[in-house]
Design a protein that fits this description.
single chain, 308 residues, alpha+beta, eight-stranded antiparallel beta sheet, 26% helix
Length: 308
């Protein structure tokens, strides 16, 4: 018996109905994704975990960069004695200056008369300060770090003095006014503090060998410098190769913050292109910035590739 309803093809499947919007009114924004807050929490936890995992690597990179900067660019230095008073403070009982020693200027030339330099003293030079070296690796590492940032006393072999004469020049004292002379011409030294009595200033003449320097402290009566070692193998001179760098900036205490210049004590212009104090200080940081740009770009590309 046939039905009165019209039939429909058997192979036609009815389409599913559109899901109804769950918003409070038509035109409302998209529905909130289930579990959105929990997903964000999981993402934040993953980021924090990634940072913790990367922290040792970041510390290692920072340590390597600090080592490279200390070795090739700049190094903080603690003034250990009063031999450079009053240019640099290091007197007993006072706040010793911390200075930045710049190594860049001597990449392109050698120390010039008037420069304040830090150098490793010859074996014949007695230390100006007594430093107790640590006996274990941890204390040695902390001392190394303290010296790198200028808060620990330097090695007993480290000295800071001013260059008065370079290789080939003849230095002696004194002229009729009691001044040190180089090649017969008196030096202009307004920085000298508490000079020694006239009768005890006499030395020389000494012709400085090539590749060596004649150095003296600004506090003449309290400086064990080239004059004090004039009887050793090298007549008191120090090797250019032993120079650590040029003292360019006082960074502590803050009330003494400022650059350290190189006065033209011999009254002649330097043969090379002069490097001003500000330029010498800024150069290492500019070079560090240039070196950091490729590393930063590489890390960004790596993060993008991971997220993609």
């Amino acid at each position: 018996m046939s039905s009165d309803r019209p039939g429909r093809p058997a192979d036609v499947v009815p389409e599913p109905e559109e899901p109804q919007a769950t918003g409070s009114a038509a035109g409302a924004g998209p529905a909130r994704r289930p579990g959105g807050r929990a997903a964000r929490r999981r993402e934040e936890a993953a980021k924090n975990g990634s940072l913790i995992r990367e922290l040792p690597v970041l510390l290692l990179i920072a340590f390597v960069l600090a080592l490279l900067v200390k070795t090739f660019l700049v190094q903080a230095f603690f003034i250990p004695s009063g031999s450079m008073e009053r240019t640099l403070h290091g007197c007993p009982g006072c706040t010793g200056d911390r200075v930045l020693v710049n190594k860049v200027p001597y990449w392109f030339g050698e120390p010039e008369p008037g420069d304040i330099v830090v150098f490793e003293g010859p074996e014949s030079w007695s230390p100006e300060v007594d430093v107790q070296e640590p006996g274990n690796w941890l204390s040695s590492g902390l001392l190394w770090l303290g010296r790198a940032i200028g808060v620990a006393p330097p090695s007993e072999d480290d000295f800071v003095k001013r260059v008065l004469a370079t290789g080939g020049q003849t230095v002696q004292c004194c002229d009729p006014e009691g001044r040190v002379t180089v090649d017969g011409e008196p030096l202009d030294e307004p920085y000298v503090f508490e000079n020694t009595p006239l009768e005890s200033r006499v030395f020389g003449p000494v012709t400085v060998p090539e590749g060596r320097l004649w150095v003296m402290g600004d506090h003449r009566s309290a400086s064990a410098d080239s004059k004090a070692h004039i009887g050793d193998e090298w007549s008191g001179t120090v090797a250019v190769d032993d120079v650590v760098g040029k003292a360019a900036l006082i960074v502590w205490p803050l009330d003494r913050f400022g650059t350290l210049g190189s006065p033209d004590i011999q009254g002649t212009e330097a043969a090379g292109v002069p490097v001003s104090g500000a330029t010498a200080v800024a150069a290492p940081y500019a070079m560090g910035l240039v070196g950091a740009v490729p590393l930063t770009a590489w890390r960004r590309r790596r993060r993008r590739s991971r997220s993609g």
